[in-house]
Amino acid sequence: MPTKQVLIIGAGPYGLACAAQAKYLGIDYAVLGAPLEFWQHSMPDGMFLRAGSTWHIDPAGIYTLNRFLDSKGLRPEQIDPLPVGLFIEYVDWFVKKLGLDTIPSYVRRLERCEGGFDVFLDKGEMVTARNVVATPGLSFFRHHPADLVSKLPPGRYTHTCTMVNFEPLEGLHCLIIGGGQSAFEWAALMTEAGVAEVHLSYRHDTPQFIPSDWAWVDPLMEMAAAVRGWFRHLPAAERESIEKRFRIESRLKLEPWLAPRIRKPSINLWPHTSVESCKVSSNGKLSVRLSGGTTVAVDHIILATGYRVNVQQVSYLSSTSILPRLKTHDGFPALDEDFQTSVPGLFLTGLAATRDFGPFYGFVRGCPTAARMIMERIRTGLK
Predict the structure, then answer these.
(1) Which of 238, 321, 326, 338 could form a disulfide with 112 if both were Cys (CB 3.0 to 4.6 A apart)?
(2) How far is it, in rounded angstroms, from Cα 306 to Cα 179?
(3) Same domain membership, residue 135 and residue 44
(4) Share of residues in the chain with pLDDT > 90 (%)
(5) Could you tell me the CA-to-CA distances from 187 to 37, 82, 152, 336 in Å, in that order?
């Protein structure tokens, strides 16, 4: 493969949005990865998204989710909430409509070289590129709190993103640690799949079952696209206010459609608790003592503990030519106003960009604006 003007690592929503914008601008690109692989293999069947039909991944606003729904004869109110499977169908339709090419290979190592980057693939091939857009998936950043897992027996717990097939849990008793949307939705899906009993332990109040309000996000996304560096230049109090409101919408609310699926005898809620100890009983069950004195007997533990960015965990970034030159803050890459890292020509977007660009970039909603900003910067550099 000849040297590409831009190589995009990852074919999730952010990677595909960048590929679409590159194609719109006539930039020679290649995308590495299988489209929406994380979505297809790390999200359970029957899961719903918290996004509305106005959220899409097309930077030009042409091949939107609503247009896809029109093509299927569906109205937005008919797909509220939005099934993950339908969104995956939309992305497949988007890829075909734009004729986006993806290469189903994985990056083993990304090296900085004179004039660009050498990219070593899993099948022994090497490609070169002047610029690289890396969109590391959530799997790199799954969070296993050290103080928690130190109390748990090895092999008796899994993270939500690796526990999406519930058949092996049929008839068992489980504990989910975490109190966000994924924790409660996993509990519902698990009991519906035949899990005998589910306990949920979380440190805060039980979230309210009320609709999330995302309407306020759109004007902020437009501001982020129109004013370079807008979020990072806000006074600290304003940034904190935005982040707090985002936390309220994303973590302290649960979608109303989930409420009747949770309110059943087989699901037990333990707010304001944490794990104090966990021992294997003589019968093989786990005896888990929660703060407050409650003890539950379970067969398996699921960590709904979310994701925490640490770019040092992105395995393909070279330990010699990339990581030593990559400036970070609390695990996040230090990005300029166009998502470029301190390594010239290397751009990072998605969840890794939330520190410098705002919490919206951990969601699909940020894909179009990120793609436009990144590809415009790359096009300018190619002139």
Answers:
(1) 321
(2) 10
(3) yes
(4) 86
(5) 23, 19, 20, 40
